[in-house]
Design brief:
With 233 residues, this protein is mostly beta strands. It is 11% helix and 58% strand. The protein has one helix and 14 strands. Strand 2 and strand 3 form a beta hairpin. The longest helix is centred in the N-terminal third of the chain and has 25 residues. It starts with a helix and ends with a strand.
Length: 233
Amino acid sequence: MSLISRIAVISPLAALAVALAPAAHAQQADLSFSVTGATDYVWRGATQTDRNPAIFVAGQATFKNGFYAGAGAENVDFNEGTDAEYDLWAGWAGKISDGLTLDVGAVRYGYLGAPDGSDYDTIELKAALTGAVGAASVTGSVYATNDFFGTEDSAVYYEVAASMPVAPKWTVGGAVGRQTLADSAGDYTTWNLGASWAFAQRLSLDVRYHDTDAHNFGDGYDAAVVASLKFAL
């Protein structure tokens, strides 16, 4: 990882900590941080690191009234000079009925080192509902933007995800998503299936299979198995 990538990974979290620490203390917010290493960074079925390893760092403040704000960063490799991605998000999550949780918010994706005119930076609005179906937790999500990555097109991403504990410290889960663009030329479906093992108090291992129906878009959309190790505070 280049020096720029290292700075990009660290700086959003440092800024988040400085900005949110006083408010978190005043509002008795819960602060969480995580560091994840993965064999690949796959986002909506497509590699963001050209099938190379990735490091993710993230932090979030969750307030007692349900509002939250966070930041994260990770290395990327689009083979054109982009060094890193940073993400900023905020929203509200809470129960709206017995067994049903609503999460609404916004996510900003930014990129360092991107070529002039690439127009990668994007803001998405999101809404998600989570409920229980037997022993499983099921979430339906929608993400929408009027300026999709590298385009000026509007786009919507739909996803249904589910996870279920199958043994002490073991969880299996998967998701099916559909990325749509205004002109429909870039529409595709993605899915993943995997298992997670919380083998220590703050450590978990995840192994997941990703695929899409967009192999004709390029090798970056081909099937991949990704392993990741996460340390959470």
